[in-house]
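Q: Now give one record:
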Amino acid sequence: MALQSNALAILDCFSMDLIWNRAETGSPLLVLAHGAGAAMDSDFMNQMADLLMTEGVSVVRFEFPYMQERRETGKKRPPDRQPKLLQCWLDVIGQIKNEYNGSLYVGGKSMGGRMASLLVSEMTDLSLSGVVCLGYPFHALGNQDSPRTEHLADFPLPMLVVQGSRDAMGDYATVQGYELSENIELHWLADGNHDLKPRVKSGFTHQQHMIEAAKKVSDFIKTKFTYTGLN
């Protein structure tokens, strides 16, 4: 795939302002992409960004072109094709590096996290420190026998996946059968679905799982973090 990296270029894949949740000076930074069906300011994304900031991780969010168009027109449309999503990710990373000189982490909710992992697997010269995925779509709904995991078997960077144990796109039992790199750490949330939400009968709450997810992400990032400046 021919992706073009230009950290100094004006982004042409999107024009919407980034959303920053800045923790204290010297904090690590995670670029967090939205999933296929919900925008960068969905309840899930807002809550997770706030929780991560509380845990001492700065977060910056962006939107893929199709989601911006949906916001502008009010009409739902499917995600952009993979090459456009990856190019947008690359452009965003370029812009962020103009403002931030520390260890940079990328990831996202569902599709956003998967695209981040694909980019990292294809381009090893981005000077990234790790990947974080919240509710990774290991397979399409109802299609466990065709996993989207080929690039994860020999993954080049540390990667954390926080996954609900009954996620319809990768539950605990199914994912155990996939070949994943030793660089990938799985953290399971009991009875959580694709949004990390458990059923009432589980004895857990969604808020508890969101807090646990944020703490796990923070711990994962801070163990590998070095800082040289956030402008």
The chain is about 30% helix and 15% strand. The helical segments are 43-54, 65-73, 82-97, 111-122, 172-175, 206-222. The radius of gyration is 17 Å.
